[in-house]
Amino acid sequence: MVTPRQVAREQMMRDIVRVGREHLATVLPADLSLRAVARDIGVVPSALYRYVRDREALITLLIVDAYNELADEVDAALAAASSLSYRKRLEVAALAARAWAVREPSRFAMLYGTPVPGYAAPGDQTVEPGTRFALALAGLVEDAWRAGELRTVEAPLNPTVRADMERLRGAFGFEMPVGNVCRAYGLWSAVIGAILFDAFGQYAADTLSDPEEFLRAHTDGLADTVGL
């Protein structure tokens, strides 16, 4: 049975995340203020400290929320595209991530942009949500392998890289060859990097008439790279 205290706590946590998101639209994560968040929620700061002990804990809460929202939107897009080819599903995933980043640039920057000075993300809270998008992409490649629709690509020649990829292959239970694991791992950074360039205007001026269409073309090339 859910108690009134639990209901009140859950509502307060939702309010903290909601107002924290609003503040991120106007200030950098390093400039977040618990006092300002408490003021906009309508409580005294001491009341907020019972839920979020300090600014770092607030940043962690917002990072986890952002990672999960991004991954949820990618997962939903992939579920809706389940009847499409694996190549097309890869495009769908990348476009869903781009749409979220364009809509939430400050939150995307918090995840993949400049690190917050003095802040160290606690792995026990952030690793799982932080890897959901990467695993959605890698899982798509793995599913293609199991369906017989992925060609084998060459394994990395460097023994250190190969050992790392073998370790990842075992840790996540991938059946695809180690070369494909390596390409799938690089796929994550390639998609995130392209979205960062797009969302923050890093492409040279007057080069792209339609950044979304460029991402489609870029993702198509990445599909070849991973073996789709």
Q: Helices and strands in order, then pairings?
A:
Blueprint: H1 4-24, H2 34-41, H3 45-48, H4 55-80, H5 86-103, H6 105-112, H7 123-130, H8 132-146, H9 159-171, H10 178-199, H11 211-226
Helix pairs in contact: 1-2, 1-4, 4-5, 4-6, 4-7, 5-6, 5-8, 5-10, 5-11, 8-10, 9-10, 10-11
Q: How would you characterize this protein structure?
A:
This protein is mainly alpha-helical and 228 residues long. The chain is 70% helix and 0% strand. It has eleven helices and no strands. α1 packs across α2, α4 packs parallel to α7 and α5 packs across α6. The longest helix has 26 residues. It starts with a helix and ends with a helix. The mean pLDDT is 93.
